[in-house]
Amino acid sequence: MCRYTFNPFLKQNPDWTGKSFDFLRNSDMFEFHKSLEGYEATPLVSLPKIADTLGIKAVLVKDESFRFGINAFKALGASYAIYRFLKDRWEGQFAAPFNERSFSDPAVLEKLGSFTFCAATDGNHGRAVAWTAKKLKQSAVIFMPSDTVQARIDSIRSEGAEVLIIDGTFDDCVRTAGQQAKEKGWFEIADTAYEGYMTIPSWVLNGYSTLFREMENEINLNEGPQIDFVFLQAGVGAFAAAGASYYTQRYGKHRPKLICAEPLEAAGFLDSIDFGEGSPIAAKGKMETIMAGLNCGIPSLAAWPILKDSIELFLAISDDYAEDAMRQFAASGVISGEAGASGLAALLALMKDPALADARKKIGIGEHSRVLLVSTEGDTDPENYQKIVRND
Ligand SMILES: Cc1ncc(COP(=O)(O)O)c(C=O)c1O
Question: In the prediction, which pLDDT does 123 show?
């Protein structure tokens, strides 16, 4: 099953010059990430078999399961946000510059004092915050919804963080993390922006841009993009907005066509486009999906205006497409988890689902098309991954 909407708000040349878009002018993310221990660009892999089966020219996937050894792209956002947070504090306190080297200098950190960072997560962002805190020898408290699988809890605890389970959804965890941060003097590193809390999530979004920047000499060329369609999966939308702003700022109206993929039961962006009259609203679905990383109901206020201006097609898919995509990735040697495979899931739906025949035609995908996907995670729930891939 799927649902889609061509974006009636789409702008060929979005105007992102206003103050609320200032963060899009940040440009030190790539240099920062390159300075981190263990940094390596993740592989970009061509999948000719999948392209052949779908009748398109090329499918490329950026495999983020290799990112910093934590099996998902998310450390790019949390590390950059915490870097900027510390930089602000240092420069405010000592009126002296703080750069990438300061971030890994124990003497600098000692002078700054100690911090407890907190965040809500359905898995990967929490692990990324915990991973960064551990690197800096600081503490982290991570809030997770009650339907979280044990493997995701364990991987966050393995980074030394405290995990608190909340009886509710991801969005309830976001509220609790914000409240607890205020009460306990912790520092919230959320990946989603809400009224009164915009700066840190904007830095998280900035951080994700590194993965698109890494491809600059391969498919993102000065003379024009070597791809025609980019599929961007959305939970709170920070990842999709990082990709959408990267391509829009780089190529303007000549950008590849951008397609936003969401779970059918947690389609906050598609529902906002369809029913929000130009404003973000909470997803109307049941908030039940195997694509755990995308099981977020409320769009991030930092991501919303970017996606509203630049996404061509919003597409929501059922879990069976994600399972199929995981198997197809596995057959091509890419280990991709439920949310990780959702971009391919949306591509499979677009190319195969009879209900999408008109959408296929209207967007113009076909034998000459080159498609970029991002597998945003590996097997973050290994047991379920094996079950799905083996088709048990
Ligand atoms: C694997 C994976 N892919 C994609 C996303 C979506 O990112 P965002 O919440 O920024 O939309 C997430 C979010 O947790 C994720 O874990």
Answer: 86
